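Listing 4. Sequential folding, example run.
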Amino acid sequence: MKDRTSANSGIPTKKRQIEHWKVIAFYLIIYDIIAVNGSYFLGLWLRFDLRFSHIPSEYFNAFLTFVPIYTIVVLLVFYRLRLYNSLWRFASFSELNRIFAASVITALFHTVGITILFSRMPASYYIIGAVIQFILVTGVRFSYRYITLMRVSREQNAKNSHNVMVIGAGAAGQVILKELKGSKELTAKPCCVIDDNSNKWGRFIEGIPIVGGRDSIMEAVQKYNIDQILFAIPTASAQDKRDILNICKETRCELKSLPGVYQLAKGDVSLGQMKAVAVEDLLGRDPIKVNMEEIFQYISGKTILVTGGGGSIGSELCRQIAGHDPKQLIIFDIYENNAYDIEQELKRKYKNLNLAVLIGSVRDSRRIDKVFEQYRPDIVYHAAAHKHVPLMETSPNEAIKNNVIGTYKTAYAAMKYGTQRFVLISTDKAVNPTNIMGASKRLCEMVIQSMDAVSKAGRLDLLPFLHAHMDKTADGHVYDPIDHLAVDRIHGGEAKLRIESVENKNRTGTQFVAVRFGNVLGSNGSVIPLFKKQIEAGGPVTVTHPDIVRYFMTIPEAVSLVLQAGTYAWGGEIFVLDMGDPVKIDTLARNLIKLSGYEPDVDIQVTYSGLRPGEKLFEEKLMAEEGMKKTDNELIHIGKPIPFDTAEFLKQLENLAEASYENSDKIVQMVEEIVSTFHPVGENPSERIEHVS
């Protein structure tokens, strides 16, 4: 369009152009004038056997005289009900309701107006005229939407990249189908629907056939050339979901599913909510259910410290705690990037959260002491630890320093400053450990049990210093200026603890517990991210051994168990989750390959690298002698603590700490002497297999 210049101002102006919708509205007005009056003429014509000459002149004259009046009223009513400025390409029930309302109003006006002003017309005239008017007015408007949909459908079919099967002929499935059919941007064509309700078989939903139940999946995939399956049953049980998805993964189709039933409740079911089916969806175990109301009533108003708060478990703990009104949340982590990420996330989501993010190591006595002294946490969740088995095998002293000594120092500070509860995050690798990481976590559990015994007995005199930040006084005493404690070296080096701070004499009563669970899906160091990277690279996917099995749980489940332990704790317990049946890693890897649309050992090779140092074929949840005790939650059990000499253990722990800080090459042997269930295995894979079988 060319610009033109105003003669008076010299300012260029643009020629005004009428919007397209106004042109369409003008044509609709012309059509409506013809349609509404033609409808009643047809009613009159039909009444007299389709013969114009048979229509009485009084009726025809009354009709002609009323036409101008009726036309003006119709246009006013239609305008007020927005029948000329709607987007008819998206016409729906809202527009249909307004057309119906307009038709009723104008029909009533026509009936009353022509009868009172001119003449009473035949009854069929009123009825047939009103019906034909509604049909004509509705038809022209919705035909535009129909033509648009047909054009979109043809264009979509021409560029479709996916033939889609939807599993679930319920409310969620209907929404998904409607969006698939109505979207111009999507390149997917719904071809068939699967539902286990036999009453729906052979029928249609949104024009798509319901071809059968789960037993028909394989046949339907071949018949309709399906390459994408959408699981749209958010109310399905974990068992049903697993069974159906296990069938689907054999089809090599891309799989997606709705996250859960809450999507229906919130009313936001859509294709955008669909996520790729994850391998945990195939585990077939119902989610762990805990009394979250009870948990968060306990958390509310408390100052809570999470060590390792930037890690997988620690960060999820922080997320759940932050949303339930703690007095203050303190995140303590040595890795600043993770700490920063969770800090920014929580600040965005919880504007009023009293949050402190601190950088430091649990191995640093002075730093830990300062944190507890300043913030005085009521609850501590201790998630900071080295967890990677092979790496700890080559750096055993670091496992002891960080896991064992770090736990001791944090637990000691908790007792010193009157923390109510201290929850250690442990692992099933602590049961009959064959690697130093698992043994270190068993030592952590023993530290917690010892601390609980000391706390209950009030025997602070049993607690040793663990080879850090100690200075000698002029008289030969070993003195820790932070802890205000002194140790006399007597009887050939045997330590006797003396409390020098009266303030801390009675600071006992802290309840110490441990929470033990298996591998966490999606956590840092988990096999799932590794397998995904290997699949993206085209393989091979490396599994250590074809028979290796592990227990698995999701991060939210792990965190819910940790939080529940805080409410059940009396002190000294080891809480254990009933994680169902263990899963073969080989099966996990092959399922993940299938979920990615590949065939194991055809498209992506699976290779076996052999057990790594310290690794065993299976992990136990409990040592046999620990026994089992039920809690109010049927999926959470308590292991009966294994008795050991607390005083002797603490003396051994002091020697172990000193050796670890000296980077002793005898550290594994020392741990083996302390942890009776620890049986380190050699470098020979066959030796490891023989040991654990």
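-- end of first protein; second protein begins --
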Amino acid sequence: MKKALSKLLEQALLPVAGDHAGRLRHAGLEQARDARNGHYASSAAMQLAGQLKRPPAEIAEEIAAGLSQHSLIGRVETAGPGFINIWLDPGALQAELVRIVAESDAYGSCDLGGSRKVLVEFVSANPTGPLHVGHGRHAAVGDCLARLLEATGHEVWREYYVNDAGRQLAVLGLSVWLRMVQREDAGARFPEGAYRGEYVFDLAGRMAGELPEAAEAARKGMGWPEDEPAHGKDADRYVDALINTTRETLGDELFADIGRLAGEWVLDDIRDDLEQFGVGFDHWQSERELVTGGEIDACLEKLAGVTYRRDGALWFPAEKYGDEKDRVVVRADGRSTYFASDIAYHYGKRKRGADVLLDVLGADHHGYVDRVRAGLEALGEPPSSLEVRLVQFVALYRGGERVAMSTRGGEFETLRNLREEVGVDAARFFYVSRAGEQHLDFDLDLARKQSNENPVYYVQYAHARVASLFEKMRARGIGFSPDEGEEHAGLLEHEREIDLMLALARLPETVEQAAVQRAPQVLAHYLIGLAQAFHGWYNHCKVLDAESGLRCARLLLAQASGQVLRNGLGLLGVSAPRSM
């Protein structure tokens, strides 16, 4: 509807603005905040005033005169310093109901993307422990973005990057081993820098059965390199010393097997957790495979003309390409860095045919963009192909009190527990109800409420009301067909009906806006507003007890409402229940 209206506005601008019309930003057409001031409003006259050297109010009158001739528009008024307020014709809104029902599940979709290929990488949590509630927000946001991009005509590929070749997996292996030692000697120490969650005990028990040679070694205990530092970098160095000691105790191969198996088991749990959360991936990219497959070496070889040696390490001149400083790609001991893996991974994405590399990352990755773009540019790829969306932290509140969380310390709420407490639908809706770059306070008590205070319940209840209405219709032996509804749609003139039809017709523009802005919260807020319009109509306008023609028209309106609610909720990965 907005797209059609924009074209009409552009046509009305041409005789008034001439060549200047093309310089306007979308003709300044926006949804009106208050329906009393129109359904849409344009600031085009004020944008043109300086260029045409004419009063904006005078320009607005000329544009309004041109607009008022079209059947899509009910009336046009000018206001203030030059605003153009536009009301859609009820007939156009009634015709849109027919389109909604006809297009069914496809309503709201478009071909904006032109089959452009977008690789969305999201979650990508290290396989060192269960997903926590912060990872859940990444999963919900990333999956919703992928759904929105698909709905707007993009070819989407979902990917999870598995960090299975770095230090963290060695720390996990050490943590499991030390818990195995504690199974034999309850007084054995456990360092602060290791993973302390309860899940490590479970992994240790499973490992004892899987690797009997490790269990036998655990019964012999181990030596400790030195007294443990209290905290900070010294604590990390102490953990690294413990890793080296454990390697000497077990041998490189057995120690590697412990870390590898533990990582695989954790990753299996992550896969299952995400599947239960309604999130799936087309590909799980292993960092270890990048190393063993030679992709990192190949990438470094391609960069050989720009890299340089200093202090025994190999450096990439990232500053030359817009980053804040140069970066090490190979350490003095010959090990490649995370940065080397990152640029090889993203270069590989481009080689696989992705036009856009959309990464959904944690807020602590703010410095990530420039360095990876620098690497892509040096490799001959457009740096603009990388797009990063940062997702802020989640704070859980229960009973008005903030829930304390510490991932390394083992004190955290898992996504699995959250799903069990509030359900998948509430979790997903709450996660995407706020812009990703903003902190999210997640009220567990509100998410569990079965009342209109809970936004997801409020929206889902609207859909359930539609289903209930049609069940009552069938129970009373009342017949209905969309053709009958279309025949009498002209009777939908009540103020509440106009409001609801207008809200329904805004789904396509909302989906497009949410996709273009990478902002699923736009769709979540739209659905809350749509539910409000539906409940207002349902409570004020009788349906089954209305006279025959009006009843058919209102049943068509209800059918269209249910369709739009299903389509919108589906794009958020939230169900549309038939009963509540």
